């Protein structure tokens, strides 16, 4: 019988209960036992509901209070010295100090989880590191479920992925530590086997990357070692892309089952069917765990039957493509979604229904799931026929867009001269990245507007008040290029999506971004167009208050795409070009209104880079073109900025240069300007604002610290091309720190000016 299986479930809860509990705990309003109890309640509820949706392999152990990679590091005793741990279970205080920092203790580095918008904490390792089991987490959660009583399948992040996701402080290869970590994994598996656990899921998402031979050998070695000891049946999970040339390595591993992501890695299927021995179980990830579209059950059943014809159904599992961490929990909570669009969607709970229906349909035939098939067929037909999703005027405009629209009128040196003449800025001009603190007052006002307790007019007056205060304060502080502060924005993507045609929004569609921070990605379901200006009103108002240049602030087309749930019936490139054209109109409106500087943020540009090198050039080609299409219509004297944070630029510096923004601001503080080396080595031709204030930390850097960073920057970039700014926007910070740090930043710029 085919097994309906799941790989992971969202942790935050239907109403973000985990977020609320964590933030109360950090504020000292909820003690550690109270937080633990909320974790237990959430787990129990989530296990029960998965069973209720017909899933027989329900995952356990993937719940986390902050991040599952951090949990793995803590379980393995991979905790840097100084955080208050010596042996045994890791205390909540140590755990959260690693996650968020504490007095004098920096947080672990945080970075993107593969090509998703989830962030994990990077294990800080060192050559010769010793590992020790602090607590068998999967076993503890398996037992917790068993007491309910519910049978679950424990989940572990595999040893090779764990090491490859980490970084060593001494620059040695983390894979050198494999033999140190394997005995701990062997013990975890032995203890699970002793507790009569039937199956364990081991995630090795690095299988979706271009793996060097050494990593492939590490996989072979690791699973050969783990195979020698007692262990439950191992389901090895790969996701986020095809295995491609790693398929042979994966197929040869001595594990009972292999999970394939057949949404992003459909190309693997035939090779996998040929390569996998008959006794190997196959877990078919056919329901998209990264997007919100309803599955075409009939088409998927066709694929499953093709597999069953080759292998029978005795050793088959049906599953989502990856953990459901990346999708919202339950569509039934959405009472305000347009019913037409709602009919096309499936969130985590609905995806489990799809998995269960597919497993049943495969075993028992179409008649057994006739109602689900009919509903799925109707949704597929309705979506294809939707006139709002396919609009001739948008298609025609896109078809008429010519390559010249992607190129500014003059090359950079001419534009630079025109902009210098117009703006009259001092050397080392100072600016910020856009947002000022989203205080409780700001969020409360917006929530009141949403509830109808504040009129749109009253809300707008308040936003104007915050803008006026921010403009005055920036002038007094001596900043050169001002911003309006983005007070009116709930989120840098959602705010724009709300004003574009083709997008829908959820009330409760939250997805964890990191720790307690969540995002509610908008749903891009139809052809995109801009019915009216989006930011013009706020930027023009802000500019009317000052003679200094005001910077208009937009989210770029690639980031709009990356941080939305995007329709899967059009190439991403086409959708992105539609957004780019809509943004181009906004850019031109800002220019016409006299806004002299326009920033088009692209923090997700790097994240969009495909995991496999072979696919990168094509992505970069259209991503660059989309940015240039949005920016390319302005006159020489209008200065275009872009901003990127969280980025490694080494392998895409030529693409960054090809975007041809007049100024780029980047996050550089934590790397002590190391990142600038890439720009210097490439001889990056345009202007650069390397961040001199790490805005992820509440610490206020001194003017001397910032001046030192700037001096380091002048070693890499000619001083007349340097700007002075923080690493990123200030929406998560408080005003006290912002006031102090920006005053110091202006002082640092003045020191540099005096010295040149
Ligand atoms: C820059 N980053 C972003 C990413 N992705 C995005 N889509 N947006 C980003 O900014 N990816 C990479 C990084 C990730 N970093 C962050 C940083 C901060 C957050 C964050 O603060 N998230 C907020 C939610 C933001 C939001 O949408 N706010 C809305 C709704 C606020 C809300 O929850 N309201 C309550 C009622 C409040 C009240 O009554 O007082 C409610 O609706 O229940 C708004 O401001 O209007 C978070 O709280 O997690 C995310 C990613
Ligand atoms: N303009 C945005 C960029 C964040 S990446 C902000 O300042 O918040
Ligand atoms: Zn940023």
Task: Give an account of the 3D structure.
With 756 residues, this protein is α/β, with parallel strands linked by helices. Among the domains are: 181 residues, TIM Barrel; 141 residues, TIM Barrel (Alpha-Beta Barrel), CATH 3.20.20.210. Helices cover 43% and strands 12% of the residues. It contains 27 helices and 22 strands. The strands form 6 sheets. An 8-stranded parallel β-sheet has the order 1-12-11-10-9-8-6-2. α9 links the parallel β9 and β10. α7 runs parallel beside α8 and α11 crosses α13. The longest helix has 22 residues. It is globular and about 75 Å long. The mean pLDDT is 96. The structure holds the ligand CN1c2c(nc(N)[nH]c2=O)NC[C@@H]1CNc1ccc(C(=O)N[C@@H](CCC(=O)N[C@@H](CCC(=O)N[C@@H](CCC(=O)O)C(=O)O)C(=O)O)C(=O)O)cc1, 2-amino-4-mercapto-butyric acid and zinc ion. The site of zinc ion has 6 residues, from loops. Pathway: Amino-acid biosynthesis; L-methionine biosynthesis via de novo pathway; L-methionine from L-homocysteine (MetE route): step 1/1. One of its GO terms (biological process) is methylation. It is an enzyme of class 2 (transferase). Catalyzes the transfer of a methyl group from 5-methyltetrahydrofolate to homocysteine resulting in methionine formation. It catalyses: 5-methyltetrahydropteroyltri-L-glutamate + L-homocysteine = tetrahydropteroyltri-L-glutamate + L-methionine.
């Amino acid at each position: 019988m085919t097994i309906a299986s799941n790989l992971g479930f969202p942790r935050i809860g239907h109403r973000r209960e985990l977020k609320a509990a964590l933030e109360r705990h950090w504020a000292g309003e909820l003690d550690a036992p109270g937080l633990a109890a909320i974790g237990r309640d959430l787990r129990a509820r989530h296990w029960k509901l998965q069973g209720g949706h017909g899933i027989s392999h329900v995952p356990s152990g993937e719940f986390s209070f902050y991040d599952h990679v951090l949990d793995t590091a803590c379980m393995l005793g991979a905790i840097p010295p100084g955080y208050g741990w010596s042996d045994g279970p890791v205390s909540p205080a140590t755990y959260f100090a690693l996650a968020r920092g504490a007095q004098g203790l920096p947080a672990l580095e945080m970075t993107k989880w593969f090509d998703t918008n989830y962030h994990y904490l990077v294990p800080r390792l060192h050559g010769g590191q010793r590992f020790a089991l602090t607590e068998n987490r999967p076993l503890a959660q398996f037992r917790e479920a068993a007491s309910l009583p519910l049978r679950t399948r424990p989940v572990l992040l595999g040893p090779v992925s764990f090491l490859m996701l980490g970084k060593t402080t001494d620059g040695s290869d983390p894979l050198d530590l494999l033999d140190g970590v394997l005995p701990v994994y062997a013990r975890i598996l032995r203890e699970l086997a002793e507790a009569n656990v039937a199956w364990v899921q081991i995630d090795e998402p690095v299988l979706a990357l271009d793996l060097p031979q050494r990593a492939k050998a590490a996989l072979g070695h690791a699973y050969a070692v783990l195979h020698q000891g007692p262990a439950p049946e191992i389901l090895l999970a790969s996701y986020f892309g095809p295995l491609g040339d790693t398929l042979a390595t994966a197929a040869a591993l001595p594990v009972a089952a292999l999970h394939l992501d057949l949404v992003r890695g459909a190309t693997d299927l035939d090779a996998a069917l040929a390569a996998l021995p008959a006794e190997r179980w196959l877990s078919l990830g056919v329901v998209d765990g990264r997007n919100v579209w309803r599955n075409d059950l009939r088409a998927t059943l066709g694929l499953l039957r093709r597999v069953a014809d080759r292998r029978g159904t005795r050793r088959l599992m049906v599953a989502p493509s990856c953990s459901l961490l990346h999708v919202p929990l339950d569509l039934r909570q959405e009472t305000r979604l347009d019913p037409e669009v709602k009919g096309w969607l499936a969130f985590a709970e609905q995806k489990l229904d799809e998995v269960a229906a597919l497993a049943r349909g495969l075993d028992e035939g179409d008649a057994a799931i006739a109602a689900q098939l009919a509903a799925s067929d109707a949704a597929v037909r309705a979506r294809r026929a939707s006139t709002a999703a396919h609009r001739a005027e948008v298609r025609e405009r896109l078809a008429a867009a010519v390559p010249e629209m992607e190129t500014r009128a003059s090359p950079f040196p001419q534009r630079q001269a025109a902009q210098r003449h117009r703006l009259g800025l001092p050397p080392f001009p100072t600016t910020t990245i856009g947002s000022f603190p989203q205080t409780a007052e700001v969020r409360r006002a917006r929530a009141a507007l949403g509830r109808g307790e504040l009129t749109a007019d009253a809300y707008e007056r308040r936003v104007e008040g915050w803008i006026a205060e921010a403009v005055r304060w920036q002038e007094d502080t001596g900043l050169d290029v001002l911003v309006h502060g983005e007070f009116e924005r709930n989120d840098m993507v959602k705010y724009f999506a709300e004003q574009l045609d083709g997008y829908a929004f959820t009330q409760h569609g939250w997805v964890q971004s990191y720790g307690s921070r969540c995002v509610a990605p908008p749903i891009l379901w139809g052809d995109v167009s801009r019915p009216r200006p989006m930011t013009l009103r706020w930027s023009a108002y802000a500019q009317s208050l000052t003679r200094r240049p005001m910077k208009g602030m937009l989210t770029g087309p690639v980031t709009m795409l990356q941080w939305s749930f995007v329709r899967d019936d059009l190439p991403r490139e086409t959708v992105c070009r539609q957004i780019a054209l809509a943004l181009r109109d906004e850019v031109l409106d800002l220019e016409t209104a006299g806004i002299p500087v326009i920033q088009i943020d692209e923090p997700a540009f790097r994240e969009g880079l495909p995991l496999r090198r072979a696919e990168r050039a094509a992505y970069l080609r259209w991503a660059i073109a989309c940015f240039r299409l949005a920016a390319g219509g302005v006159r020489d004297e209008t200065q275009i900025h872009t901003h990127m944070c969280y980025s490694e630029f080494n392998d895409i510096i030529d693409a960054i240069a090809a975007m041809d923004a007049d100024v780029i601001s980047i996050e550089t503080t934590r790397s002590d300007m190391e990142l600038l080396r890439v720009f210097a080595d490439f001889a990056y031709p345009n202007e650069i604002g390397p961040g001199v204030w790490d805005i992820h930390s509440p610490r206020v850097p001194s003017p001397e610290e910032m001046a030192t960073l700037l001096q380091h920057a002048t070693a890499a970039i000619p001083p007349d091309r340097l700007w002075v700014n923080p690493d990123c926007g200030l929406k998560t910070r408080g005003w006290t720190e912002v006031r102090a740090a920006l005053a110091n930043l202006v002082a640092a710029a003045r020191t540099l000016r005096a010295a040149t």
